Every structure is written in structure tokens, then in C-alpha cells.
């Protein structure tokens, strides 16, 4: 091998390394910028949700129209009037303020005969059965105010247990199965839920106002991480580039 052939890889290596560094730097900066964009989007979303929760409630028909047109109904304040079908309530396994129990989903029969599944709120585990809280089983016409909640498109995760229909224990909110399991015709069920507000029920159960807005916002932290890695990469390359080479060993 000639001296020129031997030297070529040495001259080519810094160029290849430089290209790889630029690619890595571009990826890190892009990831950081993407997280900043996500941060602005998430902050806007949280502000929008907060505004919806304090807005004046609108009639159920308005939310239905919005849902039918593909609009975002999540957490919008709504009001509906009807009679609870107490013998068809469904129980969603949940915790509330550290206590294990259930959210009680009860169909509200509307004037036109359709049904709206209302999350009336939380009951402790020992109060799962209606006979343990009979005072809260409202029988006359009710006007419910709460937050519209979209139906889930499917099981949230494989780690979530399957719903136990026989025991009336739901581990994820499958609106269609909840309705079907109590004989409600799908075509006559409103295609979203309503979480009732904190208006007290007789004897205190169910406990309303249990909606939890759990939208983590860690995008700023992620942005600092990616930008920080980019800065470290630049520092390492800069130190390597400007570092004085050591003395060559004696021949």
C-alpha cells in the first residue's frame, strides 16, 4: 500500500464524521423543536378545556349536532332532562380520592324515548348495589348538568382487564356494550356519555363531579432534553476539533 493510499482514510474520516455529526445535530434540534410545538398545542388544549368547564351549559341537542358534524365535544358543558332507568345502571371500577369503588352509569330516558348514559358519580365498593343507597335512586324527572365525554373507540390498552358483563363490572367504558347489556337499542342511545356535575344527591351517593382531566404536559422537559443533547454534542465536537494534538512518538 502506498503512502497516498494509506493517508486517504485519514483525510476522509473527518468528513464522514462531520456529516454524521450534522445529521445527529439536525435530528436532535428537530426533536426539540417538535416538542416546543407540542408544548404550545398542549397549553392551548388545556386552556380550551378549562374554558369549556366554566362555560354556560348548552342543550343536549347542540352537543349532538356538534358530534354529528365531527366537532370536538369533549368536556363541553351540557344539560339534559329525563328520567333515570335505575334498574339498568352499569358500574365502572374506579378510585376516587384514594377510595376504591365504582362510577355509576345510569341511562337517562329522554322525552323522545332515547337514552343518554350518565355517569352519576362515585360510590364506595360496599355501596355498589342499588339497595345500599336507595335514597340516591332518583325516580322523578331530572335535569342533569355535566360534561360531555366522547365514547372510546376501543379498549385503551391490552393491560386493561376485559369487562365482566355478568358481574356488572366495567374496566373500560365501552358505551355500546354498556347499553347492549341492559337491552338498550343502539340506534336509540346517544353516542356519548355525560359526567354529572357535583350537585349533591340524596344521602350523598353517588358523589358527582368526578371528571378528571389528566393530560400530562411534559413537553418543555422533553424539549430541554433534546436541545441539551444537541448542545452537548456541539461541545464534544468543538473540544475534539480544537484540542491540540499530542506529540508524535519518536521514530
Automatic annotation (TrEMBL):
Localization, UniProt: Cell membrane; Membrane
A cellular-component GO term for this protein: plasma membrane
Keyword Cell membrane on entry: yes
Primary site of residence: membrane
Topology in the lipid bilayer: Multi-pass membrane protein
Keyword DNA-binding recorded: no
Transmembrane segments: 12-34, 224-242
UniProt KW keywords: Cell membrane, Membrane, Transmembrane, Transmembrane helix
Source superkingdom: Bacteria
Signal peptide span: none
Family, as annotated: Belongs to the SURF1 family.
Protein name: SURF1-like protein
Species whose genome carries this gene: Rhizobium redzepovicii
